[in-house]
Amino acid sequence: MSQIKTEIIGVGTELLLGQIANTNAQWISERMAENGFSVFHHAVVGDNLQRVVAQFEQSAERSDVIIVTGGLGPTEDDMTREAFQKISNLEMVEHGPSMDKIEAFFKKRNSVMTENNRRQARMFKGAKVVENQVGMAPGMMVSHQNSMWVFLPGVPREMKAMITNTVLPYLKQHTGEHTVIKSTMLRFIGIGESRLEDELKDIIHGQSNPTVAPLAQNEGVAIRVTAKASSEAEAFELIESTKQQILSKTGGHFYGSDEQSLAEKVFGLLKNRGLFIAAAESLTGGMFMERLVALEGASKVCSGGIVCYDTKVKENVLRVSPETITQYGTISEQCAGEMAENSCSVLGADIGISFTGVAGPDAQEGHSPGTVFIGIHAIGKETVIKKCVFQGDRNTIRERSVIKGFELLMNFLEKEL
Amino acid sequence: MSQIKTEIIGVGTELLLGQIANTNAQWISERMAENGFSVFHHAVVGDNLQRVVAQFEQSAERSDVIIVTGGLGPTEDDMTREAFQKISNLEMVEHGPSMDKIEAFFKKRNSVMTENNRRQARMFKGAKVVENQVGMAPGMMVSHQNSMWVFLPGVPREMKAMITNTVLPYLKQHTGEHTVIKSTMLRFIGIGESRLEDELKDIIHGQSNPTVAPLAQNEGVAIRVTAKASSEAEAFELIESTKQQILSKTGGHFYGSDEQSLAEKVFGLLKNRGLFIAAAESLTGGMFMERLVALEGASKVCSGGIVCYDTKVKENVLRVSPETITQYGTISEQCAGEMAENSCSVLGADIGISFTGVAGPDAQEGHSPGTVFIGIHAIGKETVIKKCVFQGDRNTIRERSVIKGFELLMNFLEKEL
């Protein structure tokens, strides 16, 4: 097994002032580990030419692959190019296609490109340009002396796409790194981390390849299964067999693998059944529907939603009966039921979900913050209503309501429809 | 003004595997900045004696204060003590009170103390012990050659208490550092980073205290103004006067300071004017309204919203006229206008905002992804409609639409109402 020494340098004074955490280094490290590269150092240095140069000199001595994030922007604060030029003496040239892209960006917005934006198209001679598919400024990879240097923007979204689409494939191809480390996340809902760990303790302690580790997540709990092997196929087999062992013990709570979200799971169930969904959202304020509309192809499953934060909207638009509201209040099983039912008829959907409750910080209608009713109605089926009590601040309660809504909906779709 | 060069080293392979982010370095950096210490480097190194020693040697050369977190635990993985002994040749002795505490800890839990736990009570001769008030193992501060070394556990809760209660007071007392550093963020929308820098270049280059630095943000651009002074009051005055200079040049785009979001700004404007808002959201799917409902007191400004992802909902619930849709399409100025106007009447609000456009990935009604119409209507005022063209993937386009909506609304509220 070759040992490629990798190092990740973050350039930016905002990191040294503690305004942001170095999550770029974390994310890149995870990807590198998955692909069999050893990261031996993280370093952070501010927007100061002398110190960036000193850092680069040191990194060049100790590492084979050096990934630098940040310091590539258009302003004079951005030192990465200048610093690398000082240690490499490589000539810089303007990269035509990148310059065209930058100019087009400004033209499309009808805004004037200032001269300093040209800096972003400057590349070291002989560098491989790393195309930025989600932003404006490109990155680059340069081989210098015994190291491979990778320069990427500090914006996480742009950096991530560039690592995934270009840098990792290139590094794997050019370093002869052939150990494969594969990881999969198995995602569970409706079961706590300690209970899951307890049920799986024989599997967790009984083997070292794959390793099995439970992780608390925003949406339920995940189990990370990580296998080392000499080929993808072998790693895949190792993972698959452990996955089957795990699911045989806890399958009922399993909802998906890897990056699959609960929203995607529900989206798939709706799509397979050809069902359109509507939502009536009070305390969640549109968060539920927004998670579905975020997914490509939303028009195949989403009718629409009504954010009925105001009681008048519950009555006038959602047509919840005034008697229900007078007799039981808006935070009630009855109101949640009518909201779910009427969302179907008003919005022309097959299935409706409703959220009404107290996000806080103040109590409402005699209910303390965290009291939430979630209703689900499918045409021709009995309406299901669940009363929940969540802990946490306003937005935690809102977030947990939405997650619970997806969980209930998943179970409802799998069992009832 | 003295310039104490500080450096923060995290020891632990879990950081290099990306299992956790280096939030310790962020937190310490923030505290150091507030207290006038300049942090020039972050470094992370794994549980490997040789590499920890190499890192320590390098840090000793460049920094006055070196704060090391992690690697102090009881297992053989924990290298921090051994590494420092290698570079300092300082003798290690068992610290009686710390050993007593460790023994008491195990006795209290009725568990057996293994021999390796003794390691945690070992201190360098002459070190100041940093008591751990929320955990078991102590930290220490050691003066060696020209640097002050601070060793702390990696557990954030323990490390934080030790920094606050012991390390910072000690450092301030022993370094004669009485400088206060205060920072504020001024937030702008509707102006690019390079244009803002261009307008402010005299201010940016003309002064060193406060420093003025532009930063790209998710919501527009921010300017960070950072002042060093000998008192809070003096720092505040310096910042205030620079802020006035900046606003006199770019005030029209300014929307808030520090952590204020655009949604909060708009929320405040609505509340001050006693206005209720409604939203008609197609491609944004509820994201706009969800940002407002996330704020405490949302019931004072939010009527509600309609997520009209489906054309039928635009017609049946929002009552957009079928002629408009047939003649101009749903992605049109006309449809956006009716959506904004009707959201007011249907939801009983004073002001309505609408979003209709193509999130992608596919084109729609002959418009390419990123084409978005945003409408704003206030009762008794002419409806305003803005056509935008955004770059990026589906969710970037949706996110940018919402941010643009808040920007337009802010301008509308400030100028028209």
TrEMBL record, chains A, B:
Output the InterPro entries linked to this UniProt entry.
CinA, CinA-like_C, CinA_C, CinA_KH, Competence-induced_CinA, MoaB/Mog-like_dom_sf, MoaB/Mog_dom
The residue ranges of the MoaB/Mog domain are: 7-174
One Pfam family from the UniProt entry? CinA_KH
Which intervals of the chain form a coiled coil?
none
Domain of life of the native organism: Bacteria
> Which family would the database say this protein is a member of?
Belongs to the CinA family.
Q: What name appears for this protein in its UniProt entry?
A: Putative competence-damage inducible protein
